[in-house]
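Quick one:
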Amino acid sequence: MPDRLPIAHLAREDVAVQDLMRRGLDWLATVAPYDLATIFELVDAELVVQAARGRFADERVSGHRIALADFPTVREAIETRRARAYTEHDHRHGDGDPFDGVLDLPAGHACMVVPLTAGQRTLGVLTLDRGECETYADATVELVELYGRLLALAIHNAHLRAEVERLSERRRQHAAELERRLSGEGAGELERSAAPAVRRLAVRAQQVARTDTPVLIRGETGTGKERLAHAIHAWSPRAEGPFVAVNCAAIPPALLESELFGHEKGAFTGATAARAGRFRIAQGGTLFLDEIGELPQELQAKLLRAVQQGEVQPVGSDRAVSVDVRLVAATHVDLEAAIRDGRFREDLFYRLSVFPLHLPPLRERLEDLPELCDHLLGDIAARTGWRGLHLGDDALDALRAHPWPGNVRELANVLERAAIVTDGEIRPEELALPAGAAPSRPAVTAGPEAPLPTLTEVEIAHIEAALRRTGGKIYGDDGAATILGLKPTTLQSRMKKHGIDRRAAAEG
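Output:
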């Protein structure tokens, strides 16, 4: 008997089931001699040949099937899970040979039937036949019976791997479809844009998409930075890989490191199992880091290492893990000002902004307003089942006159509110546009010598103005977050960062 049965290794290899069966039968020849070895699969109440090896293995054997009811001794071998070697007496007075009428084997030839079972599941039987009239020895039968158990386990595992691969492929296809829906076919929208600035942006995005160069997308809040990141991913050679998005402002700083880089079991309280982290989940694809300007300083050095060396170190681990990820970052924050204030690493900025892209605000691409409205209303109709939603000419003129401080995100909210109260055609009064909403960029003070406010000062003033208008209310359709085109959690994060008190701002 060989020191080690290679079938145990076959069980771990990612090989096709048929190939595994043939290789298993080939190695079986070193354990027990045969002129024909076959694997019958149990299909309903029949046994069907799936693989055959030996000098008698030809087209007559391929696909041969027998009814299990016609072979009581074979059924008994399956039920008892014990191998059986047939004697000359069995051939003459038993239930015959499985290949009677197919092969011209001599009466009394050496024959063995071995059940193939894995756990509680019966896969079929393994048969061995020789042209010689000599019964297999008991020691050989026991050895082949053991081998049959290992072979059945290997076949069962191969079937499971094949099923997992089928499910994984379906999941990948489903995820790809979800990504296309979530991205709103952003790639096509950019290319079809009526605004020259957006079409130029699409050309540059396509150019960089063909590389693995990091991309920094800049633009005001709500301009569609994640949609542009989706488009870059779709245009890239990594399009079949995952697209993973992380909002650095929406995750508490204490959890963000684990979220990005993963952690080991027991790394901290509550870490009951190891976690891969978003970098490793995005392996072979694109990782989109939104609101990169909100990344805590203590994590910026680790992100720089991940970008430069392609390695991440999970929390609680003493070893680095290699990752192959294309990084796209986005922000509306003035990173240069953050560098001067000591809030953002200059080396990380230069590593991320190798190829910067600027998304123009909605007020600078009003040529696209009709198509954007059609697309957003189509999304609303698909989600709600409301049909016939469309904008009247007066409503479209009202939208063109609005300054859109929240950009496309604000437009989506305005249209959804209007869709709720309309009977099909949306009229100006149903848009409920805020009167006198301030644009997201303040007007420049007249005079060449007049000092300009910093972006931080502008952001603080704009948040406080929104809180005054809503009486300090943050959540809801009439809350400050909606007016600013932000998620409520993002607005609260920025208020905390700037030390803005909700009640004081509302009363001011």
